[in-house]
Design brief:
alpha/beta, 14 strands, 4-stranded antiparallel beta sheet, 328 residues
Length: 328
């Protein structure tokens, strides 16, 4: 599946494969990303997110396929391609015996930032990441939240077009997570941001587009809203009534558009039913009239929308089931 949105492609990943011996970590990935958005790589632990990011940033070579960064092949033209990228690995590459300002000066020199720009760029990055108050402190004496900010600062330094963040909020407390998310939103005003996470709430909160990866494969890609809508094409309806389950099933048998019915008796002696609806049907009015005709009151009747969590579980579980069946 290729994510195409009709504009310029800042990143193109083509038929990407990464093998470690017999283990296939990345399985023929294809996607294209446009500038100016926040993209989320979402998947279970071990899905291949970090491996994909390491290949995209030039830290790892691919077994097959290619990655183009603004038209430059990351393997054939690494220096030119890497100029466009700032990268924060899951474990930030920090020298803890350095002061914050010393470390950023060191990173600026590594990135080839000219001496004329270096001081102003470091000041701007420290303001952006709110490190000004700790610039003279040793990194080893900083909290985990501040260390993560230093990692972000080194990724942003030089102001590359693309900021790639691997699990940027892992291990942080709720306040620190909120602060990092706000920083990511601010970065997206001038940069394309790509972040990986296995935390659904995080991806939904900050990302414009989501790429769901499972077992090294891209199983879906779209906006959070469209992914939920896609899975809602055949929706569910729930109802509750104070009659015997057999009566509920009998009344529902006259309603067109029902695919399946799951019925259970609740503790307060009411009957609960979950109805799977065929695509293209809205059965709520017909259900209401069918119960009214039998003079049976409904205590509850509602449509159930699929959440992003359920989309994620459905897609990743489906991929696991396919792989399991192929191994039998």
């Amino acid at each position: 599946m290729i994510l195409e949105q009709g504009g310029k492609n800042l990143i193109e990943v083509k038929n990407l494969v990464k093998k470690y011996g017999d283990h296939l970590a990345v399985d023929h990935l294809d996607f294209r990303l446009e500038p100016g958005k926040i993209y989320g790589f979402l998947g279970p632990n071990g899905a291949g997110k970090s491996t994909t990011m390491n290949i995209m940033t030039g830290y790892l070579g691919a077994t097959e396929g290619e990655v183009l960064i603004d038209g430059c092949d990351i393997l054939k033209e690494p220096e030119e391609a890497k100029r466009h990228i700032g990268y924060l690995p899951e474990l930030p590459p920090l020298y803890t015996d350095m002061k914050v300002s010393e470390y950023l000066e060191f990173v600026a020199e590594l990135k080839g930032i000219s001496k004329i720009r270096r001081e102003s760029d470091i000041e701007e990055v420290m303001k952006l990441t709110k490190l000004v108050d700790v610039e003279g402190r040793l990194i080893r004496n900083l909290s985990k939240g501040y260390r993560q900010r230093v990692g972000l600062a080194q990724a942003i330094l030089g102001f590359p077009d693309i900021i790639i963040l691997d699990e940027p909020t892992v291990g942080l407390d709720p306040k620190q997570i909120i602060e990092i998310r706000e920083l990511i939103r601010n970065l997206s005003k001038k940069h394309t941001v790509i972040l990986s996470s296995h935390i659904l709430a995080e991806v939904r909160e900050v990302c414009d587009y989501i790429l769901i990866i499972s077992k090294g494969k891209l199983v879906a890609s779209d906006t959070p809203e469209k992914l939920e809508r896609l899975m809602n094409e055949s929706e569910s309806v729930e109802l509750e009534s104070k009659i015997h389950p057999n009566m509920v099933r009998e009344i529902l048998s006259s309603v067109e558009g029902i695919d399946a019915v799951e019925i259970e008796k609740t503790e307060n002696e009411t009957t609960y039913a979950k109805i799977e609806v065929k695509a293209g049907y809205d059965i709520r009015e017909a259900v209401f009239l069918a119960f009214a005709e039998k003079k049976v009151p409904l205590l509850m009747l509602k449509t159930v929308k699929v959440s992003l969590e359920e989309v994620f579980m459905e897609l990743t579980q489906r991929e696991e089931d396919v792989n399991h069946a192929g191994n039998l």
